[in-house]
Design goal:
This protein has 503 residues and is of the alpha/beta class. It contains 15 helices and 28 strands. It is 38% helix and 22% strand. It has a seven-stranded mixed β-sheet with strand order 16-19-20-15-14-22-23, sandwiched between helices. The protein is globular, with a radius of gyration of 25 Å. Its EC number is 1.2.1.9. It is found in: Cytoplasm.
Amino acid sequence: MAGTGLFSEILDGEVYKYYADGEWKTSSSGKSVAIINPSTRKTQYKVQACTQEEVNSVMELSKSAQKSWAKTPLWKRAELLHKAAAILKDNKVPIAESLVKEIAKPAKDSVTEVVRSGDLISYCAEEGVRILGEGKFLLSDSFPGNERTKYCLTSKIPLGVVLAIPPFNYPVNLAVSKIAPALIAGNSLVLKPPTQGAVSCLHMVHCFHLAGFPKGLISCITGKGSEIGDFLTMHPAVNCISFTGGDTGISISKKAGMIPLQMELGGKDACIVLEDADLDLVASNIIKGGFSYSGQRCTAVKVVLVMESVADELVEKVKAKVAKLTVGPPEDNSDITAVVSESSANFIEGLVMDAKEKGATFCQEYKREGNLIWPLLLDNVRPDMRIAWEEPFGPVLPVLRINSVEEGINHCNASNFGLQGCVFTKDINKAMLISDAMETGTVQINSAPARGPDHFPFQGLKDSGIGSQGVTNSINLMTKVKTTVINLPTPSYSMGDGLIARL
């Protein structure tokens, strides 16, 4: 069970502790933050409500620990990361249980997230040793007008303190996707987990603690965003912010100052379906892409743009598959579980009611019980409906019928988002042209949008984000280039005549 056995140290009565200076601590505030189980709508867990003074303390410890960590050999950093990955995977059951209870993720998917996270840490350790163990050697005479009198040596060095803020929907995986690159690169790491998902993150952090990382190098601060959110993101000790979430990231980017930012802020991922597409393949991918984890994924299919000539057939195929989706508690591995909060459910319902008022065709009856919303396919959606543009983050999927490929591309590009998209066709030439025309960070051909495998680049355009993720890109973003130039008194050329005479 969560908070027991190996993890009993992180729990104080009913309240989970925060992590700083290599210890599990209770906040001086004497307050806690409740975590509501989305399925029961009752308090499941409580975490510490940390203060700004505690944030200051953590930042000072992080700055100090980072100086020593930067001097730790790469192989030793990698060794500790591999150890943390093994401990994490060995304890997948209690961590997965936390995911089930605090974000209503189906049990089997929760286990998958933890195992995937362990694999990501190990891959990052190996990749970091490779790319950080190499530098560049440049010669001055490759630029016009210069003799070979300068040798330039470049290497990658850490930024300092990295602030990581993952989202509720993949709190463990999207935390380690920030933690592992930061640590292998020689940075210290301050983690501010989401409220929903905080306990899963605390369990994950304990795995790093058990692996033996130095005190102060990793910290995990819990609390109310209204009290410590801006204080964290604007803190002068922070040298880099990696954030995954919603439009809060836009606010962070405006306040953060001159530090590197890695932001993934959601999407309205379009699925463009041409006449020649394999409609059975399309229908399966719409179900997988639009309804897995109840649609609460940044890379979920958020709008289907299908050619009118095949729309009726496709909608019928999708309807048949929607009817087979199971709805219920995450403990039963239901396909559709409760969305994360009542406010999320209310927002989704608002989009549905707007579509209803404006004449969308409901392929199923709209049904909601608390935070549990049954899967819903909306046909004949028009551009004047909110659901055509806004991200529901729930099990509701709009279908817009189009009369040309250009119409589909124009709708995709008119969105303020630009995370991912997909196109289904048997004509690879058309697919490549459409991919080039879509203003998104990634385009999937004949498959639903997806983040991963985790070493693939992952980025968004426009309001979908800043920078690029993926193991290699994250390591590079969390480092800076250091250059040392050796100046020679006279030009030097390998095997050059007269070299000895000049010495």
